[in-house]
Amino acid sequence: MSTDLGKRKFIKQLLIGGGGTVIGAAAVKNLLLSELNAAHNDPSAAAAELGKFAREAKYYEPNKHGIGAVKCVLCPHGCDVDDGERGRCRTRQAHHGRLYTMAYGNACSAYVDPIEKKPLNHFLPGTNILSIATGGCNLRCPNCQNWEISQSRPEDVARYDLPPQKVIALSRVKQVPSIAYTYSDPLAYYEYAYDTAALAHEQGIKNVLVTAGYYNQEPLRDISRYIDAVHVDLKSFSDYFYKEVPHARLKPVLDTIVTLKSLGVWVELIHLTIPTLSDDLKEIKDMCKWVVNAVGDDTPVHFSRFHPAHKMLQLPPTSADTLVNAHDTALAAGLHYVYIGNILLDKGQHTYCPSCKQPVIERRGYTVTANRLQGGHCPCGNKIAGVWQ
Amino acid sequence: MQAQLFAFLLGFISLTYQLVIVREFASFYASNELIIGSIMACWLLLTGIASTCNKLRINPLALAFILIFYPLSSLIALRFLHAGFFAVLTIDPLTSLLLSLITLLPFCFAVGYSLPQLVNAGKQFPNSSFSSIYAWDSLGSVGACICYSLLLADWFSPLQILSLGSIIILLLSGASFSKSAAYTPKALSYFTLFIFIIIFAWSRNIELFTTGLSYPQQDLQNVTFSQHGYIVQTKQQSTSSVFVNSQLLSTDSVSLETEEQAHYILAQREQVKRMLLVSGGSNSLFTELLKYPLLKIDYLESDPDLAAIIQATISDKYKSRLTFYAEDPYKFLSHATEQYDIIMLALPTPSSFYINRLYTTEFFSMLYPHLSADGIVALRLSANINYLTPEVSALISSIYKALAENFKNNLLLPGSHVYLLASQGRLNPDIAALPAISALKPFFLTPDYLRSIITLERLADLQSALLQNAPVNSNFSPVAYWHYARIWLSQFSQSAWWYLFCALLGGALLALAKLHTKSTVLAFSCSTTSFACLGLSLLLLFSYQILSGHSFADLGLLFGAYLSGSFCGSYFQINATVTKRKQILGADALVLLLSLLLPTIIFALSRSYQLSSYYILLIVAALNFSLGAIQAWQLRAISQTLSTDLREAASFIFALDFLAAALGAFSISALLLPLIGFKACAYVFCSLKVLSLCVLYLSAPINSPTEASPKRKWLGLAFSLAVLALLGALLLSDSTYQYINAFTLNPNYHLWLIALMIAAIVAIVITLDSSVELEAQLTALPRSNGLVIFRWLYFLSFLPALIYPLFRCVFKIPFLFCHVCPQRCVFGHLRPYLIPWALTINLERRKWCYNLCPLGTLQECQAKATKSQNYVHSVLGKFLDFLPYVILALTVVIYLVVWGGDKAAVNSLSSSWYEYFYAGSNDPQTLVIVSVIMLLIIGLFRRRSFCSLLCPAGALSGLLLKMQRLMSHKRRG
Lengths: 389, 973
Ligand code: SF4
Ligand SMILES: [Zn+2]
Hints:
The structure holds two protein chains of two kinds.
Chain A: H1 7-37, H2 43-50, E1 55-56, E2 60-62, E3 70-72, E4 80-81, E5 92-95, E6 98-101, E7 109-114, E8 128-133, H3 147-150, H4 154-157, H5 164-173, E9 178-181, H6 190-202, E10 206-211, H7 217-224, E11 229-233, H8 239-244, H9 251-262, E12 266-273, H10 281-295, E13 301-305, H11 320-332, E14 338-341, E15 351-352, E16 359-364, E17 367-371
Parallel strand pairs in A: 8-9, 9-10, 10-11, 11-12, 12-13, 13-14
Antiparallel strand pairs in A: 1-6, 2-3, 3-4, 5-6, 7-8, 15-16, 16-17
Chain B: H1 2-28, H2 33-50, H3 60-86, H4 93-121, H5 129-155, H6 158-180, H7 185-202, H8 204-212, E1 219-226, E2 229-236, E3 239-244, E4 247-250, H9 256-266, E5 274-278, H10 283-289, E6 296-301, H11 304-313, H12 316-319, E7 322-326, H13 329-335, E8 340-345, H14 353-356, H15 361-367, E9 371-381, H16 390-404, E10 409-414, E11 418-423, H17 435-440, H18 447-453, H19 456-465, H20 479-489, H21 495-514, H22 520-548, H23 552-572, H24 580-607, H25 613-642, H26 646-698, H27 710-732, H28 734-744, H29 747-767, H30 774-780, H31 787-808, H32 826-841, H33 847-852, H34 854-866, H35 875-880, H36 883-899, H37 903-917, H38 926-941, H39 945-949, H40 952-972
Parallel strand pairs in B: 5-6, 5-8, 6-7, 8-9
Antiparallel strand pairs in B: 1-2, 2-3, 3-4, 9-11, 10-11
The structure holds iron/sulfur cluster and zinc ion.
Zinc ion binds near residues 358, 378, 380 and 382 of chain A.
């Protein structure tokens, strides 16, 4: 290559290069704009463009920084979603300046489970519950048991076409008194869960959310109107854990629990006791103390055995001792109803009356073997907290 | 002699290091071949790239330092990195690949750099230095393989093994020092280093401590480095667990899974007397199993070390009813005489070929004679029964089919896993009703619970998830392994793979582009041989594993056989009397023959179970030996043909060899084998060799003047037509079209193309000398320039985008009317990017046209293949020169009419010409295809026929340039 370029030549080349870039950029922008202009202003028509299972999302704000971008305010992640992109939950997509959920009616799972398997011990014991889910989740737990569902986009795992009316109809066919929004976090399909719950509520069917509780306050309050029980996964009592493992924060989860309780929704908490990560007894004690103070000692707490799954394979299953210790710590902290799950143990199975200390509901695994409750009361007359009919 | 000794050591150290590192990574990932193959590929790739750096000068002391210390420290660093960044989480395989790249880089660099240098240093032995260095290097590797498999792997820990090489080098250099100047402080420092390394590597605490880093806050009870990998026993609180290659194998507490595993199966029969349990034994499982009164269990584990560990952990109260066997299941079944009521396979997931062979129809057929009349075979697969992904369904289907080939009744049961039961007798899905359930009263599996989980609906869903035409999982077509790999990979984000792949490919191409070659044909032949030989030998290794079980010792021996083959090959080639050309051709033919025969040989071996495994080992080793020998022989012959500058030739050959082998290792383990199975794999190599043999045979002998012979021209045309026909067939058939369509519309593909184009622009601006006349550049460019490779890459990348519209254009004229086309294809998508660039860059001569235009490149590559010349000066030619302006005018008119988006104008047009061109769908059109073929043929006589005859963008640029020239003439004049 000749090194003496010459002024004229240099300028010429500069012009060519610059011109090429500018024209190229203009072409790209043109492409984008022409697509945008083609957009309809009618959201339902735009939703139709995205497919049958898209609906406009309920909670979002415009975002000034990008063409067609929006900011989702459903959960504390508060994703800024660019046009055509998805939020962290993999279900909410920005499309011409609006946000759409892609998970509405395209359920991937619709089976009947015993309610004890959720687990909920103080909510219609011994009944079955219809569980529905779509793909997507706003958390990224490396130990997720349902990662096939939660870490996928809804359209990739969809199996059914189940709009809210059909869910209700299905629950009638299956003769179940309640519907659970579960497996992945119902937040992923908030709009779908919301409409279904509203419809079910109207028809006297109860609704249960099985969730990690990572919600913003307003949407949470909105949906709670129709919700009868919530099972909140309180993964740990350390913000560090929340940051490192599911990539979230602790505070919003605690707020969720308090809010739900204050709205009169039945709440049970589950703590998956992961060895070396969330099995610290002091932390568990602090957590139980907080539960007693913030939402009352009649809130059931379940300690569940961890088993290696998904990407967390190099940890052993939780030992029975750890679970028993956690159970005893919780009782000592003043909680009345403490359970142990997912392991064969005699402790932590039955519901004991806080007053006469006798078992009121006896269980074996996920089965209720004896129920001595009389209208929500122990035979001794003490009221047992819960939803019993 | 020193160079030879050093080559020997180099071979020894590098191979031990490789074996240890591969084993280490395998232990992170349950011995997944995907990972093993990728790491090997990384290794070869890096070494290959390094061996191209022959111009660099590096202090030999620094090299020695790397070779002595790096292996040890990198292993420790790797463990720290693994633990520090990722703690208890499985590393994303991509990250681990990057990790392996980083860890391997310095060492591979030192090795790859040293080889050509040694060749140069050993020059004093005339005419044989290349082969002698190569031979000694292989000999060192052979030594390493044999030591490793016979001695090291069983008796020494990884750190100890690595320290051996360091110690030898230290001793040698110490000896040479003591000869020259006795007892200087230098010698003393050597001695201290020596002691330090010994203490460091041979202290078991360091080994345990660093291994335990991956199991934080658990008490490490024991680490065993067994045949199958790392077995780690830990204790946390009161739980003791056994991990094999980072997968939990057994623990104490009974859970829902344990109960399902026992009662779903054992409750099926009124009386169970004898049972065979293959793998997966634990106290909790035996607690449940031995609740059945008559039961005696034979427990079979293929790894003796693991069997011993499990035996030690089992509580004494069970032992009276248990018998332990440590043997490969195939072998055990071939001599066992017992009849079992239940055979339960509690195996790990089929994450490797080795485990997959226990899920195959061949294995199930061996189980059959060992079952009592209505005995049951049972296994389980981990799956989320609330939602079966398509991959999981495929996995279950392939194994279910394998069972169904051998047994009359098959049953799928839902639970925390999916359970597969098979028997000649009756199988009952209604577990709740079985008498054993009410008698034994399991904790979780109460009748109520069972009834709510095993519902008719779930059973039907499981049944309907089975794919009707799923292929059967068999030993040599490991379908289940492949599906499992996909399931496993789907846990991780995959978009980054694409970029990594591009980066690696780019690196390899860059390395190749640096090489100057006299003969592409020889390079092609050499690299395909390396590719095929390594691939075939991997095929052999895997087949051996399938046939006679997994053992590091045997694998090392087989690898050793391959390498001793390469030693002999390069050693004996020196005395060969046949001409070089014949040698090279002969080697090609032999590889062809071997790849053709291989499937038959393996098939024959797999049918002969009586054959002692020693014979199998012998046969496979002999095959491996011959592969190595052929490959080395040819390599040597090629190096002699090419040699002028020794170091350059050596680095060229080494690089080609390593790079092709890298590709072979990766594609076999990660892609070809799981996708198309053993047989087809061998045939892929076969056809590759057919191709190289043909090319080699037809090519002129090197150094004779190359001229485009008519034979060559027509062959080239036939070749282009064949490529076109292949692509065309793929595009025309609706089943494959779907995939290609999806691929070409993938934004990642577009991004890649645009990135490529930007890179090309930069490269062109840097490399092209604008003072040389255009015509001269045009003809000179493709020669001796690093851009040649780039051009082919460019060509290949754009090929789908270019060929697509030829067969599936909505308009009858591809490339031209994209702006009026309502149905964008890939080219239509790209056009807004291409045209403006083209016009501006063409302002300074038609640089775009000659270097960047995908269409131009397509034709240039065709011209290369057919060696066509430019026949410009003819009357017809002069007339044809006018054609592009006609087309340009037409395009401009149509463009202007449609540009405004004026619907009415379009509608008025549609009555006439628009209607004719607009087909409305992407269906193929004969007219287009015929004209394409015509253009190809015209291309034989007129280089770049499209550019000069049809392309409107080119015509426009040409016009502009003409005007420029006119203006400057005027100014001057
Ligand atoms: S709901 Fe989804 S899109 Fe909205 S903020 Fe949360 S993760 Fe982001
Ligand atoms: Zn009471």
